[in-house]
Amino acid sequence: MTFELIHVDSGDLSLDVEHPENQRKLPTLPEIVAAGAKAFGLSTNDLIGLRRFQNIAKARHAVTWVAREYLKESFASIGRALNRSHATVTSSYNRAEILLERCPGFRRDVRQIFENLGKSCYGTVQPGEQQ
Fold first, then answer.
1. For 110-128, how does the pLDDT look when each residue is reduced to its tens digit (9 = 90+)?
2. Which of 25, 34, 38, 99 has the CB geometry, 3.0–4.6 Å to 106, for a possible disulfide?
3. How far is the C-alpha of 110 from the C-alpha of 125, rounded, in Å?
4. Whole-prediction pTM value?
5. Helix 75-82 to helix 86-102 angle, to the nearest 10 degrees?
């Protein structure tokens, strides 16, 4: 099984493919949602609920990005997990790409999701770069 990992190197998020030391079971989408909620100090119910406060929206953006980039989940399946439409999730992913480039705090929060999942980090690829 091969998969991608996210890494923080000199403050930038990066992806590395097929690192042999980390070939283990991938987290599930609900585990990523839970890790995202924890990283942002929220509950999973906050992430799947109807509220649209900025802190909750940013957490959804981060969870969407991690699920898409790390698990290669479809926008539709991420939407089902977050109780959102695929169009909303697509917009959320695009917003996450912008935040990753512009906001060090958001990058830190995304790193925290990976730490909550217990993942190691390797490599150097800019956020948003497609494999």
1. 999 999 998 544 332 334 4
2. 99
3. 15
4. 0.74
5. 100
